[in-house]
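As described in the Methods, two query proteins were run sequentially through the folding procedure within a single session, without resetting any intermediate state between them. The first query and its resulting structure tokens are shown here.
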Amino acid sequence: MQDRINMNMGAGGEGMQKLLRDIIIEPLMDPRAEIGLGQMDDSGVIDGIVLTTDGHTVKPLFYPGGDIGRLSVCGTVNDVSAMGAEPVGLALGMIIEDGLEMDVLRKVIASISETCRGCGVPVITGDTKVVEKGAIDKLMITTTGIGRMSDALQSNNAKLAASTGRKQKWLQDCNLRPGDDIIITGTIGDHGISLMSFREGYNFQTTLESDNAPLNGLMKHALEAGGLVAAKDPTRGGVANALNEWASKSGVGIVVRESALPFNPQVLAASQLLGIDPLEVGNEGKMLIGVASDFTEEVLGAIRLTEYGGKAAVIATASDSVRRVVLETAVGGKRIIEAPAGDPVPRIC
């Protein structure tokens, strides 16, 4: 372990995983948690209450398709939803730099309000601090989300048990089994590539925008179809990191079909120009969903009928024939998809 923190340690890849394992998790673990820090899922559970928290440091504060306010709500709502829970409320913490324009704060708060109304999850408490100029970069937000067991999750679990004999309570990273299909709810890499292009001033002559979106409604419809075993929003470290986490925690391999991966052509073009693998880029409005194969088509159909799921696709299958995340290329070859050391686009969430 290095003796100083570096940017990779907060980027969602192997550097961050090592920091969590070596420094943070063990001293804070508590046996009272039903799902705690040790599982490293998107949320924790204690006394039947689902809880998650997210810090947001995105730069710039406003970008095509979103802003730090919308991002903070969507990210937290999606983490609660990834457990299969129903998000019911948010806490909002803001650290504001001295000198921030009041109109900027008004715009951020208006965006938070609009996003909360849209997904039906209100801010119910919060905290605000102001620090001296130069102590932070303008504005940082932490959102904490609380959720509960939903009727949709209970229905999903009952259908899964009746069809396959598999019993589960929450959608955890360790739930995948060989033969399960993996769905992504839309195109990959939109958020990170669009934000980097905007931030760095690259003129790709595109209308590419971030995919910021709350996915609690989409998850409700998917759960009602039945057969879901796991879900994860591929934020920092992107799809590559999320799939590697699933493979490691579930003890399975994952075979990804390159021909099935949905990409916006503008993302592919920009990624190639910048030398970035879009599978390692963060997303803020997509969900990876593991589903028992008997339910795949029904779940896929339900997702595609939702506002944010029209381009959903089955991209991979869990397997016991490999022990890694393996990409079957369009030309018939295979390559290993490694967990990234860090996100190639820093400060996108």
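Immediately afterward, the second query was submitted; its sequence and tokens are:
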Amino acid sequence: MDIGKFIAMIFIVLIHVLQRSLIGFTGKDGWGSIYFLMLGVPPFFFFSGMSYRLKKPLSPLGFLYDIVRRAFLYFVPFVWFIALRVWLYNQWPDFSKGWDELMLYPISGLWVCWILLWISLVVDIGLFISYICPKFKVAIVSLALVIGYVVLMIYRNRGIIETNHTIGYDYFMVYAPIFLVGYICGPYILKIKNIFIYIACLIVGSVALIPIAINNHEIIGVNFLEKSQWMMYLAALCSVLVYFGLINLVKKLKFSYVIAFLGQFTMEMYFLHLMLLKNWKTMHLGNNWVVFWVTVGLFLLCYVNTFGVILVTYYVPFLHFAMFGKHYSRYKFEDRIFGFVRDYCYSNGNIKKPLKVF
């Protein structure tokens, strides 16, 4: 799953770079934009669903811990993004225009925070209910997602929820079904070992996605709910086929463990590359070679920026947590603190021998 997340982030960064370096990549003739979008975004939610399948039912204390952890994970970088954008681009007057104006900054990029928050909340409620009857965990969580989807869709069709709402209800309706498919499948489908199946899935998914992208290239994001909702889900399934092939082929490489390691930092990559690219306008470049080298340069700059920040935060206690809301450090005492809190909450306070924090 980490290998898949890393590959998906490559497509996401690539589409944002090409939007700024290649004329015609988006818009009337830009079907390549929607093609890369489908290869980059839906698989993330599919993999998230697969990973949630491994989570056990939540005790009351574990449920509270998960809510607090998700709040830190999604909203610490969310706040940083707003603050840095205001500071870097000298947009201080926007603070006086109210909450909705400020929310226009991240809604075009950090909508992923809201959608992951809503999905996680619904799933955690399902896991909390399944604490009473753990044998039906999969059915209860799946039902919770379906109910959340149906309720929001009814509210939206009645005009109670606005399209492109600031806190991303629409995105829940776009990506929750993809998350649900990943949750039902679980990580077990990645254990198939036939290389011919990998190659067939890669070819079929890649080819099948082309006509979908060509016929729907002007439909991006939540606009699928307006025009071609089921086409969006079909495109997502095609992209999942592509990744099933890609992941299993990459796993055979000797350095696949490096790719898997880097795949753990896709959230950091997402936030930091937006800071580099979101305010850059489309460049009118003269020829194909200029486009190529500018694209390569911007692409590498995004990754160098991210790895540099990850490296620095690794050697400063609690800095990674302060910037990205999750623990990543070389210091054992930090690992013990977070590990003790996690184990204590997930065991509902039933740790017989508490760890020595220091």
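The chain has one domain: 2-326. We note this only descriptively and draw no conclusion about the first query from it.
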